[in-house]
Amino acid sequence: QICESYGESLLACEGECCSVFHLECLGLKAVPEEKFICAECKNGEHTCFSCKLPGKDVKRCSVSTCGKFYHESCVRKFATALFESRGFRCPQHCCTACSMDKDMHKASKGRMARCLRCPVAYHSGDGCIAAGSLFVSSHILICSNHSKRTHSSSAVNVGFCFVCARGGKLLCCESCPASFHPECLSIEMPEGCWNCNDCKAGKKLRYKQIVWVKLGNYRQWWPAEICNPRSVPLNIQGLKHDIGDFPVFFFGSHDYYWVHQGRVFPYVEGDKSFAEGQTSINKTFKKALEEAAKRFQELKAQRESKEALEIERNSRKPPPYKHIKSNKVIGKVQIQVADLSEIPRCNCKPSDENPCGLESECLNRMLQYECHPQVCPAGERCQNQCFTKRLYPDAEIIKTERRGWGLRTKRSIKKGEFVNEYVGELIDEEECRLRIKRAHENSVTNFYMLTVTKDRIIDAGPKGNYSRFMNHSCNPNCETQKWTVNGDIRVGLFALCDIPAGMELTFNYNLDCLGNGRTECHCGAENCSGFLGVRPKTAFATANEEKVKNAKLKQKKRKIKTEQKQMHEDNCFQCGDGGELVMCDKKDCPKAYHLLCLNLTQPPFGKWECPWHQCDVCSNPAVSFCEFCPHSFCKDHEKGALVPSALDGRLCCSAHD
């Protein structure tokens, strides 16, 4: 960490930083007998690996073997940093080149070569490492960002615009040969130094890339291939060069030379036509153009073949994720745990045929509460503990024709049966927005986020179970339900109908579309809306579409009566509070009640009329009603029982002032 040199006799710090030092660099002659801890670990003030400022407010990377420290504000600037429940994984565990290619899954996998001076890492091999990086060891390098060249003396710019290929008044990049007309970029001519978008984003040239090179005072740009320093002749390796310099092989002349990014720009397909129409072209240059075009096609074919193999390999199995059995908390979100005294107790008995089962009258099941094994009267026979016991029917991940991966049941499932729990990372709204923003920046189009409450969202993207593979359908066979399990709200998937074995499991995402774009739906249902987030066609509309069409053609006037769905009040008519309510089944009656306000322990069976429709005195059908409580009276007992109130003359009983 002091001289940046590789070698033997390295002494490792046994503190948090995992750093190693030469004995001579520490001023030591022999390995100390006691435990060695460096100065930073002793005083607790570690230096931020990004901004290089020390402090006690820095946090350590969660990877045990890393030892790098960062200010949270510094590490959040890197799209390659990954935030987890235990902290964050720093950018040195994600390939910078792959992340720029928007391949985040590939970016975090494989062996890395890490920069000794900054939070940059690349996959080992010529495909990702930036040209001009200096290797210290097989897995440690100093990246090309640390070149000692100044911007003012490094770049040699082209004399034409990279957009329209014409000359004129050009805006020149300070770091590479790129030049542009300000109007082609739709900007005003800036003052002072300016860098193109590729240089601002940190895009680097790579080994085995075909480029145009300007060497010395030669007027002509010449085609060449960037070479790995270890693959060039020894006499070329021995030529003077610095960090940021890389050797190139010139086509035509077959010479080697060391250059830097300021004198090189990428060759693109079709550049062979650069010399077409020129009569006084040099034979060597013409040969160079032909060799460059041929080599470009060879490298392109190799790259496409490698990509095809990777796509074919990836098509055999779903994209990587971490399989978990229960929700994992991220950040400030908390999982609620209820006291045993707070958990509701149902009235089922162990002697019942299927206690707390699907077809039982279990009060907890009706109110979407899971029974607790220590509270439920049915004890071990209780059948309402599917979340806790993870009683999922066997299912398998399948590849669908147009909707990616899906989930298929291996056995038949009954209507109302528990299918799976939707699990993942529990995050808050702020973290959700950050993840969506990061996903858009990296061109990620698959989202696995499901809202539980306003500030509790399940993200099954990085971690989850088989439920994350369930596809959307406008005519689904499953639905999501929010259940209370041991005091905490969890999301389960339940069958909407009988599902035969071998059928794909689906549910309606009810997606709120992000931005103005809409995702096309490929569910194939008869009532498909065509897009995710758009309400599916109703069964009535689908079934009668042809009839309505025929009716218009025959010019018949037909009134189609649609039955209005009965709307009930949101508060109990007895106490005025909200919550879990029982609705009156009498036509046009909007009243609803708490079970306790009705002195009931479980919801009434069958069609039920509320107390408002029976006389308080004789229980005969009521004809006069108090508009503020369930008191009502029949024709024989209505006299003097109700009087007009001060509120618009509405009738009230003697219980109200």
Automatic annotation (TrEMBL):
Residues 207-270 form the PWWP domain. It is found in: Chromosome; Nucleus. GO terms for molecular function: histone H3 methyltransferase activity; protein-lysine N-methyltransferase activity; zinc ion binding. Residues 517-533 form the Post-SET domain. The keyword S-adenosyl-L-methionine applies. The keyword Zinc applies. It comes from the Eukaryota. This is Histone-lysine N-methyltransferase NSD3. Keywords: Chromatin regulator, Chromosome, Coiled coil, Isopeptide bond, Metal-binding, Methyltransferase, Nucleus, Phosphoprotein, Repeat, S-adenosyl-L-methionine, Transcription, Transcription regulation, Transferase, Ubl conjugation, Zinc, Zinc-finger. SMART domains: AWS (SM00570), PHD (SM00249), PostSET (SM00508), PWWP (SM00293), SET (SM00317). InterPro entries: AWS_dom (IPR006560), C5HCH (IPR041306), NSD_PHD (IPR055198), NSD_PHD-1st (IPR059153), PHD4_NSD3 (IPR047458), PHD5_NSD3 (IPR047527), PHDvar_NSD (IPR055197), Post-SET_dom (IPR003616). Residues 393-510 form the SET domain. Residues 158-202 form the PHD-type domain. It comes from Manacus vitellinus. One of its GO terms (cellular component) is chromosome. Residues 282-309, 543-570 form a coiled coil. Residues 341-391 form the AWS domain. Its main location: nucleus. The lineage of its organism: Eukaryota, Metazoa, Chordata, Craniata, Vertebrata.
